UniProtKB/TrEMBL annotation:
Protein name (record): LITAF domain-containing protein
Keywords recorded for this protein, A-Z: Membrane, Metal-binding, Transmembrane, Transmembrane helix, Zinc
Family: Belongs to the CDIP1/LITAF family.
Species per Swiss-Prot/TrEMBL record: Sander lucioperca (Pike-perch)
MF terms (GO), sorted A to Z: zinc ion binding
Amino acid sequence: VVCPECHQTVLSKVDYSSGLLTYLFCGGLFFCGFVLGCCLIPFCVDRLKDAKHTCPTCKTALGVYKRL
Ligand SMILES: [Zn+2]
């Protein structure tokens, strides 16, 4: 992508954070039968998390991809 701040073509850096779906998934597991430690699994699953793209050069947020 081309960064709007430094106008360089950069490969956006993706950070994952625990988003809403992560918590919903966690809650779903919790209510479907609490198995020890099971509700912590979603926090380790990047695919369920929000992806925040940032420019590696100037740290500008390029966008946040949310699952919901
Ligand atoms: Zn930049």
